[in-house]
Amino acid sequence: MNHSFLVFAQKIQSIAQIGLEYAQNQYDIERYEQLREISFEMLEKLSHTKVETIRELFEHEKGYQTPKIDVRGVIFRDNTILMVQEKIDHCWSLPGGWSDIGYTANEIAVKEVWEESGLKVEPVRLLAVLDKKRHAHPPSPWYTYKLFILCRETGGSLQAGMETLGADFYPLDNLSQLSTDRITHEQIKLMFDFKQNPDKMVICD
User: 172 Cβ partners below 8 Å, 6+ apart?
Assistant: First the structure.
């Protein structure tokens, strides 16, 4: 139920942001500002994030709001998958992060894998485009799409990065504690399904 109301709060925030972008009447602007503040208060209750933090997150968001894009690199060695340990919670995830302006999704995957694990890779193919709300992640203020891109090792060596404590390869049946805001066991299992079935079609929620 929380996830359903979280989506409602995200939609209200989006409508308010669009309204603030195009409204010209001062009364309308004030109403959209009030609506946006209500959405922040709802997001605080539903995502367990302080309203001040949420306000800062959206402070510079303007124009027509679209989903955030999270890109993850998928790298296998035999029957193991590359995982990185996040500094923020000391838990493990696939290497990746938010898309940056000026980079393609493939370039983001390559960049994030290098920065977080020390491995050089090249992109092979898109595996999945998942809607975060359809998976067992904790509530978040952002509405997010997650892209999973299969990559092939070309060099480098495993090491920690600016945002990671370390990197290693793990089998599906022996994963360390997951950073569930970033990855779920179900999603890693799906990546192994692609390894077992290379011709499997791209998954899109």
Answer: 79, 81, 188, 189, 192
In degrees and rounded to multiples of 5, residue 174 shows phi and psi of -145, 50
pTM for the predicted model, two decimal places: 0.78
Domain 68-204, CATH = 3.90.79.10
**Domain range list for the chain:** 2-58, 68-204
State CA 28 to chain mean position distance: 33
What are the DSSP calls for 92-122, one per residue? EE-SEEEPPTT--HHHHHHHHHHHHH-EEEE
Q: Are 24 and 44 in contact (CB under 8 A)?
A: no
AA letter at 142: W
* pLDDT tens digit sequence for 126-184: 999 999 999 999 988 888 999 999 999 999 999 999 999 999 999 999 999 999 999 99
